[in-house]
Write a structure and sequence with these properties.
With 376 residues, the chain is α+β, with helices and mostly antiparallel strands. The chain contains 11 helices and 13 strands. Helix 1 runs antiparallel to helix 11 and helix 2 runs parallel beside helix 6.
Length: 376
């Protein structure tokens, strides 16, 4: 398959122009590459009133943080410090004996003790039962945004909470907690805080100079404002310099959703995965075997919620033939509208960046349409 540059450009520009005119987006950056060549890239709309989007505009990644956290844990696995089959209590003993709970009449009810221990593999594939479903939402509301949380304090507090189901008996997306526990495992096995580990082991080697948990003053000036709708009118919300994701403090290096980045930085990360773990400058971040393991479907069919909800390690994988992306393509999205995929067979990378308080996540209309417009 060879992408037609003109068709890709026409499809994307028509769609995004319509979205801008209708106020569905405030702005967006897009990038499509095939075999290392840029097929199409462009900036549309604004980062704020009176400020156009540019290629160095910074976006909140939200859950597009998760693939980066997955790469971090895979590095520790390659070093023999962690195994996919390791139980979480090997690193965080408080997770040795977990209870299973459910919500009954708005209250938490304990239904028994988990018979299996949570494994690293379970956290990566959303099969751990940690911080997921309605129970996870209720427990998450217990965390006060006023507290200066970090990974250690969150892990300690959450260890006393029930999980939603028996580990590896079901698959249900964990928005934050599972990948925050993975981030803490990286801290424990490396002796470094998670932000410093990512900078040393991934960001600096790949030249990802604008990917961080704590933006500098200069980076805050390049941050796009969150787009929203108020009384039927599209608006930009004031810049919140105290938080990256929801009301989580900047002291909390959230492995599930805490990073900001630029489209060019994330391009370097995606290019590395497409190249089998090697960055543009020849630096190896992961082995080819680890990248293949990361992108391989890792959840048995009987546990999957739907044919579309198939997980590798920290990425969703396409494994059905009647979808607009080919089988083997993988990637993920963010709650604020960021989205990427990698198509290994056709050597395609697609990245869409926007920040909005609606139409986000894996089912965002903009993400789906972007995929369709590239391939149709």
């Amino acid at each position: 398959m060879v992408l037609d540059k003109d068709r890709v450009r026409e499809n994307i520009e028509k769609r995004i122009s319509e979205d801008l005119a209708a106020g569905r987006i405030g702005g967006a950056l897009v990038l499509v590459k095939q075999r290392g060549e840029v097929i199409y890239q462009n900036c549309f709309g604004k980062a704020a009133e009176g400020r156009e989007l540019t290629y160095d505009t910074i976006f909140r990644l939200a859950s597009m943080t998760k693939p980066i956290t997955a790469v971090a844990i895979m590095k520790q696995i390659e070093r023999g410090l962690v195994s996919l089959d390791d139980t979480l209590d090997k690193f965080i003993p408080e997770y040795a004996d977990m209870e299973i709970g459910r919500i009954v009449d708005g209250k938490i009810q304990i239904v028994g003790k988990a018979q299996n221990k949570i494994k690293i593999m379970h956290l990566l594939t959303h099969t751990s039962g940690v911080g997921t479903g309605v129970l996870g939402e209720v427990l998450g509301a217990d965390f006060s945004p006023d507290n200066e949380y970090d990974l250690q304090s969150v892990a300690a507090e959450y260890a006393s909470k029930p999980i939603t189901f028996e580990p590896f008996s079901a698959q249900l997306y964990s928005p934050l907690k599972a990948f925050d526990l993975l981030a803490l495992v990286v801290e424990i096995t490396s002796g470094m805080t998670f932000d410093k580990f990512l900078k040393k082991e991934i960001f600096e080697p790949l030249g990802m100079v604008d990917t961080t948990f704590v933006p500098s003053d200069e980076q805050w000036e390049r941050m796009t404002l969150m787009h929203s709708v108020q009384d039927g009118e599209a608006i930009f919300l004031p810049l919140d310099r105290e938080h990256i994701f929801l009301k989580l403090p900047l002291t909390y290096f959230c492995g599930g959703a805490g990073l900001v980045s630029t489209i060019s930085d994330y391009e370097r990360f995606a290019d590395m995965l497409l190249a089998g773990g090697v960055g543009a400058d020849g630096v190896r971040i992961l082995s080819e075997e680890s990248v293949k393991r990361l992108q391989a479907p890792s959840v048995p069919a009987e546990l999957r919620r739907s044919p579309f909800d198939i997980w590798g390690l920290g990425v969703r994988v396409v494994n059905i033939h009647d979808y607009h992306l080919p089988c083997g393509a993988y990637g993920w999205s963010g709650a604020f509208g960021t989205h990427f995929w990698i198509d290994p067979e056709n050597e395609i990378v697609g990245i869409y960046m926007k920040n909005s308080h609606y139409d986000g996540g894996s089912e965002a209309r903009t993400s789906r349409n972007f995929e369709i417009d590239v391939y149709k």
